[in-house]
Write a structure and sequence with these properties.
The protein is of the alpha+beta class. The chain has 5 helices and 8 strands, in the order ββαααββββαββα.
Length: 167
């Protein structure tokens, strides 16, 4: 996973007609290209899910979180690398965020941990328990601290989810 990309999708169910398999990671967009995260997300969504009409109703003026929310409702994990580059140099540090579905399969969890291990030096946020209210996405949010790397943040998320299942 040497390539720097803007978007990664970890699929949560099998659909051999679409070449989708539980835990499969697909990446889109070179991080240093000028294309927006919305363009890349919307194009990937339209290509992978042409039967879902909401994707064809969206355009590039929407925020990338809108089609991403729909991807999570389909059971997919979405990762954005939002690092800013200028002339090949990182401007504000390495940053990324995850949007997670309500349920993560064991294969997705394994793939997610493999993916996140490549982003150990990143400041990562996790958005989960997502809802849509009046066209705005809401949910819970975890942010890595200076004392924890991306994998530690993911472990913190797992603990929170385990506690919520026990209630």
């Amino acid at each position: 996973m040497e390539e720097k990309f803007k978007l990664a999708i970890i699929y949560g169910e099998d659909d051999s007609n679409k070449n989708i398999y539980d835990g499969k990671i697909e990446t889109y967009g070179n991080i240093e290209d000028a294309s927006s995260h919305m363009e890349i997300t919307l194009d990937a969504s339209k290509n992978k899910y042409p039967e879902i009409t909401i994707f064809s109703q969206l355009d590039y003026r929407f925020q990338a979180e809108v089609p991403t929310y729909i991807l999570t409702r389909l059971g997919n994990i979405v990762f954005f690398d939002i690092t800013k580059y200028k002339n090949g140099t990182v401007k504000y540090g390495h940053n990324g965020f995850l949007m997670l579905p309500d349920t993560i399969t064991p294969k997705q969890k394994e793939s997610l941990e493999t993916l996140i291990a490549h982003y150990d030096n990143y400041s990562i946020s996790i958005n989960y328990d997502l809802t849509l209210h009046d066209g705005m996405i809401d949910g819970r949010f975890l942010q890595s601290t200076n004392q924890e790397n991306a994998l530690h943040l993911l472990q913190r998320y797992y603990k929170i989810m385990d506690k919520s299942k026990q209630k």
